[in-house]
Amino acid sequence: MWFSTNSHHTIMTNMRVILITLHLVLVTIGTVVPMRTESARAFFVFGDSLVDNGNNNYLPTTARANSPPYGIDYPTRRPTGRFSNGFNLPDLISQQIGSEPILPYLSPQLNGQKLLVGANFASAGIGILNDTGIQFVGILRMFEQFSLFKQYQQRLSREVGVVEAKRIVNGALVLMTLGGNDFVNNYFLTPLSARSQQFTVPQFCTYIVSEYHKILMRLFELGARRVLVTGTGPLGCVPSQLATRSTNGECVNELQQAAQIFNSLLVQMTKDLNTQLGSDVFIAVNAYQMNMNFITNPQDFGFVTSKMACCGQGRFNGVGLCTTLSNLCPNRDVYAFWDPFHPTQRALEFIVRDMFNGSSYYMNPMNLSTIIAMDANI
Ligand SMILES: *[C@@H]1O[C@H](CO)[C@@H](O)[C@H](O)[C@H]1NC(C)=O
Ligand SMILES: *[C@@H]1O[C@H](CO)[C@@H](O)[C@H](O)[C@H]1NC(C)=O
Ligand SMILES: *[C@@H]1O[C@H](CO)[C@@H](O)[C@H](O)[C@H]1NC(C)=O
């Protein structure tokens, strides 16, 4: 079921109708979601499957979430391309900042005034390195996401003029979620991967953070001025890794250590960049600790397990992919992981709470509530 179907366009058309209807309902009742105002800032998203909201549906790749039970808790109850049972991280951030959800850049519906809200360029399977996720074939690597962002800016300029387009891009909130695949779908993919022959883990982390530095500089050149940079989560604790590498269900040490080395280099790199730019452009998000909180104490968060995925098969439901044939838990709100790699909407809600209201240990140098208050005064 991980390929394109003829019903895809029908689904998208139905979804569009439902979403438009939903939007009207929400605007009418008004109190449920903050209404979009003239001043609602644009939102741009780059990165991998944690934030892809459907771009891969339009690409020749197997890395897709466009078949059931993906989307089972989404308002339409249909798969959308999000790697979640319901909303994903960008959706939940949009809701909190009072913007309508942004569309995948490749969606034919992203036209006209919709361009002003922003766009999502993320593509499941990609990494910092071009050789990450090669097994997924036709996905949008970072340099491709950026060339589409340039194309977007030209289209936006035609819509609102060059000056206003620049103001929208400079004033936008940007989310960049990248790096996990450079480990699980590259360095650690096979025991003798090319990158693991070339580098030790610390050397590899130094190398990919130096490449990430170039990516963030390019993003700055393209006009981004407020960028959330999520570190990688606890890679050794995801059901897929528990299933394949853990003997006793404990998080896999080698991957946990790699994630920690990478994350601490990333925090330092964003600090250095901010110093160099003389402005807090980049905000390091401690996704590792945000996830570890509910992985370590699932009961405190209302989860019955943080080891077993809701959808999957084999040990910890962590073997293979989540498909129509997989085991599926009846209540997604009591699971931390939706599929072998991705958190449930419920778990993402806890992450978003920390992004808005967390201390500087979680959000460095500042949380999203502070950013929004500050930027409102510009
Ligand atoms: C990825 O490929 C693009 C286009 O060929 C190139 O500009 C970029 O430097 C490459 N990145 C890395 C990390 O090799
Ligand atoms: C952050 O805290 C404020 C004040 O307590 C609260 O109203 C808001 O809902 C919180 N935001 C998130 C995303 O949890
Ligand atoms: C969010 O950041 C602001 C400024 O750093 C801080 O005052 C506030 O306490 C933070 N929120 C929480 C819940 O720590």
UniProtKB/TrEMBL annotation:
Keyword field: Hydrolase, Lipid degradation, Lipid metabolism
An example molecular function term from Gene Ontology annotations: hydrolase activity, acting on ester bonds
UniProt protein name: GDSL esterase/lipase At4g28780
Transmembrane segments: none
CDD domains, alphabetized: SGNH_plant_lipase_like
Record's keyword annotation contains NADP: no
Family: Belongs to the 'GDSL' lipolytic enzyme family.
InterPro entries: GDSL, GDSL_Est/Lipase, SGNH_hydro_sf, SGNH_plant_lipase-like
Any GO BP annotation: lipid catabolic process
PANTHER family for the chain: GDSL LIPASE/ACYLHYDROLASE FAMILY PROTEIN (AFU_ORTHOLOGUE AFUA_4G14700), GDSL-LIKE LIPASE_ACYLHYDROLASE
